[in-house]
Amino acid sequence: MAVLGPSGSGKSSMLNVLAGRMAPSSSMHLRGHVAVDGQPVNPIKFRKNMAYVMQDDALDPTATPREALTFSAKLRLGKDAAATEKAVEDTLADLGITECADTLIGGERIKGISGGERKRTSVGVEMVTEPRLLFLDEPTSGLDSYSAYNTVAQLKQLAQEKGATVVCTIHQPSSEVFALFDRVLILKAGRVVYADTVAGMNDWFASRGFPIPPNYNPADHAMFVVQKTTVKELEAANMFQPPPSTASTLADTVGMSSERAEQEVLPPTQSTFTEQLSWLLHREMKRVVRDKPALIGRFGVTIFLNTLFGLLFYGAGSGDDSDPQTFQDHFGALVMVAISSMFGAAQPALLAFPVERPIFLREYSAGTYSSIAYFFSKLSVELPMSFTQTLVAWTVMYWMIGFQGNFIFLVLSSFGLGVAATSVAICIGCVTPDVKQAMEATPMVFVPQMLFAGFFVRTDQIPIFLRWAQYLCSLKYSLNLLVLAEFTPGNCEKDGPKSAKACRQLKDSLTLKNDDCWVHILILSSLFLSFRIMGAFILGRKARSVY
Predict the structure, then answer these.
(1) Inside any domain, residue 532
(2) Is the pLDDT confidence value at 241 over 60?
(3) Rounded CA gap, 438 and 411, in Å?
(4) Dist CA 50 CA 46 (whole Å)
(5) Which of 438, 412, 285 is nearest to 353 (CA)?
(6) What is the C-alpha separation between 110 and 292, in angstroms, rounded?
(7) Beta strands 191-197 and 133-137: pairing type?
């Protein structure tokens, strides 16, 4: 069935309700009846029998079509390895993507399969679960006429051979594409204009005074009529089908309260937590290894910037700290390294997470895995990467600048700042819909960290009503740890009384005590965990409300 209608006619909303992607709630009331084979059903609970393909292809660009289908089948079908492999191979063959099955899907930065093959992969990710109903939102969007025809032809074949019911919204289909459909539903302002066979369109429109011209695309004619004709004119021509005589709330029809609908909006996962974590970890590691431009850029920038810091502050850490200027250079080098650690760890996550978020929303809303398994897998790959990046940075500039503190403790302090900053970046990525907005929100979050860290302005000089913000700044506590590690009593006293006095003044300005080390470690760890949990909660709520 093709669902046609102008923008705002209610095509996607109707699809979302039928597919169980919208649930009754305190802010949204749904009225009507939903039935399958004449039997009333609850779309939320019936979702395990449905598949939904979104308009945008939310696929992992570093995976291949075979890997994407295997991932979906393994976690959503719960079958053994042989049955999963057979289901994947059959779906690849049915969709005609066997030849490109081992080519990267690709995206904006990674070259991969064609747009038509990517769209069919999106269909395959859902079709491999053997759904009874398949919903697609604009499956031909962005495709040329031949690719669009091939995609719909494959859907037609699936409907005939697999016995699945296929319903898709479609925008201006060509006459060849439209002829593949069995039935059509035409909407205007949320009301049904026509709902019957494609073959019967000509007689029906002719009986209402809008005959389809000879050799004219029926879909184009129908769209032209409903868009150029007002609702009143359509009503006068008896173009709208009458609404049901009675309509109770959807929640009452399917025996479900609004509260329960919100709780059961997601289908249950079919795999164990261990299986989810294992497959997610495997995919994350492949993503890191295969995305070579991002990997080279991340470590290339780290090496370049820290080499630059080493040259600019060359020998500043091993100079005579009794000289005020030398001491200031020494502390300045430490500050710059801390700021670099914060942005160096946060920026890759900030750029990557908004891109990966649609993939998570699609898979999470389909019950592929839990949000806990997803965040654990991200964390398990991110922590070693962040530690390696920090270790490379300190290896490059530690001896060039001549820092005196314990190398391992300095690395761990910067690593703590990096993972805490990454948690904040992921939180931003969960809230913002795309990379552009995430980058625009970055200064609002990270610039105050520098202001409240204590090295630009003393904490006691900050207005009392703003002073609380320092407790949310990971940069402050990481810098405190770096100062305690670098300016130990032994290092401060080696250059005489003036050096020791300068150290005391610095620690007083930062309200630091030598025995507060574990306090700062605890607060830094708390910030890391708090923002991580907040990000998981926000993302989970978005999955429930959007999809």
Answers:
(1) yes
(2) yes
(3) 28
(4) 7
(5) 438
(6) 9
(7) unpaired
Spatial separation of the C-alpha atoms in residues 118 and 245, rounded to whole Å: 44
Which residues make Cβ contacts (< 8 Å) with residue 34, sequence separation at least 6?
A: 17, 18, 40, 41, 42, 43, 250, 253, 254
* CA pair distance 304, 309, nearest whole angstrom: 9
Report the C-alpha gap between 156 and 120 in whole angstroms. 13
Nearest to 130 by CA among 99, 163, 104, 160: 163
Q: Is 287 part of a structural domain of the chain?
A: yes
| CA–CA distances in Å: residue 252 to residues 18, 33, 42, 215, 541 | 16, 10, 10, 47, 24
Distance CA 537, CA 358 (A): 16
DSSP state of 215: T
Q: What is the pLDDT of residue 244?
A: 63
pTM of the shown model:
0.79
Per DSSP bridges, beta strands 133-137 and 50-53 are parallel
Strand duo 183-188 + 191-197: pairing: antiparallel
CA distance 90 to 97: 11
pLDDT tens digits along 217-231: 899 998 988 888 888
In a domain? residue 35: no
Number of domains in the chain: 1
**CA 477, 501, 520 angle in degrees (round to 5)?**
15
**CA angle (38, 44, 46) in 5-degree steps:** 50
Rounded to whole angstroms, how far apart are CA atoms 34 and 31? 10
Which residues span the domain enclosing 416? 273-546
Q: How big is the chain by its Cα radius of gyration, in Å?
A: 30
| pLDDT in the model for residue 544 | 62
Would you say the C-alpha torsion 400, 406, 412, 418 has a positive or negative sign?
negative
Task: Report the run of H or E that residue 39 belongs to, with start and end.
Answer: strand 39-40
- Tell me whether residue 78 is in a domain: no
Q: What's the pLDDT score for residue 69?
A: 92
Q: Which parts of 96-217 fold into alpha helices (H)?
A: 115-127, 145-162, 175-178, 201-207
Token match 């009143």: residue? 232
Q: Looking at 177-298, which runs of residues are DSSP E strands?
A: 183-188, 191-197
